[in-house]
Amino acid sequence: MLDRPLRAAIVGDVNVGKSTLVNALLRHRIVVTHHAENTAWNWWFQAAGPDGPRIRVIRRDRPGEDTYKITDSAEVAALPAASVEKVIAELDEPVLADLTIIDTPGLHSQVQENSGRTADLLGVHPRGEQETLAGVGKADVLIYVSDQLPGSSDAERIAGGFRRLGVGSIKTPVDILLVFAQVDKLGFKSQNPLARAAEIAAAHRPEWESVAWNVKPVIAQLAQTARCGVLDASLLGALRKLAALPKGREAACRSVDMLVRRLNTQVDESGAKDLWQNLLPYGLSLGFALADRGELTAENLAAALEKASGIAALESVINDIFRRRQGLLRSAIAMRRLSHAAFADGDTRTLSRIEDMYASAYGRELRDLNDLRTASDQNTPLRPGQREELRVLFSGDYAGTPGEAAKAAVRWLRPANVPGTPPVLRTLALHAAAAYGRLAESKESR
């Protein structure tokens, strides 16, 4: 497993924009999206092999698999759920060169079997119970998609369900990214939705940093529209007609029914609904601005939607927290699984060798990753400010001077030597002191 791409599972409640986000990341409208629940099994997206792009359907009702063309994704989505174990879509997309993306069914689906598939993927039981020591999930990292920002009426319910996922193979915030995928619908009116959502997320940081390494607001629908070839002549023509209305074009954006009524003499109902579904009120306002300047083209609108969606910033965060350390994450996962197996088998010799590996110079980065996970765990008894300090230290982002690092090393030795210090905190303090000591020496030698 050390040479395979990192596996990122996209999870969240039903109808929060998971599949729309996946399409945007893939730059390919392959997953069917609509307002009803549409994902009944796990879709695995990975790089195409020698046989080129294709869809492989692993059967549940009989041995073997069926192969479809990429253009047949809607036909695949319509297969009976009971007959499908999982679907593997192989694409020639750069994002999949070193990352496998897994789109999952909704967590709280009315169809219990659908949610069960997600639970199995993550290595948790349907009721959120602790996994067995031998039980491991199939995903390495998690991208949790929500339609509720921190502080909303539903935020605590969502956070509670989100925390329960942490009992699976993905245990700490270090491996988790939280995405708010529909921030355009949160009633910010004339304010920039992404900017306002980022402000709210920052204000509620103590609520989300216990479950995720970072948060990112996006408008998944606009990203899909910008990237997946949706902006055809028909849609642009309908937008131009709406922008050219002598009055009331803003009022037409209040609901899809009002938009249909305003365009009823110029665009058929289907075209008006497509306009609403693909651009949303915020995207329509961006189109109006381009039309008023005489700059409404497919290229200009796609660029405006891409920028407004926040998808590029999300990709940058994915690169930073997952891709940058994917080799280390895979190694840590392999070591954890080996430890689980050795413990279950009572193999003390292998467990001793694993401990020796972590203690060696070769295991230092793995040890730092484990310490980062421990520091990010809200159950670790750290004082205010210490958690963020250790997150910076063990993630490799420390930027202080050699003198500052040396003082920090001494400071972290104190709690390690205080009688009654909890063992987990004593170990963490010793490792922090050692890490600061190495930084002080390495910076002085430059």
What can you tell me about this protein's structure?
Helices cover 48% and strands 11% of the residues. Residues 126-136 have low confidence and may be disordered. The two termini are 37 Å apart. Helix 7 (220-227) crosses helix 10 (269-292), helix 15 (364-376) packs antiparallel against helix 16 and helix 15 crosses helix 18 (423-444). The chain is built from 18 helices and 9 strands. The chain is globular, with a radius of gyration of 25 Å. With 446 residues, it is of the alpha/beta class. Strand 7, helix 4 and strand 8 (176-180) form a beta-alpha-beta unit. Strands 4-3-5-2-6-1-7-8-9 form a 9-stranded mixed beta sheet, sandwiched between helices. The protein has 3 domains: 6-218, Rossmann fold; 231-297, no CATH class; 360-444, no CATH class. It comes from Acrocarpospora pleiomorpha. Residues 8-151 form the G domain. One of its GO terms (molecular function) is GTP binding. This is GTPase.
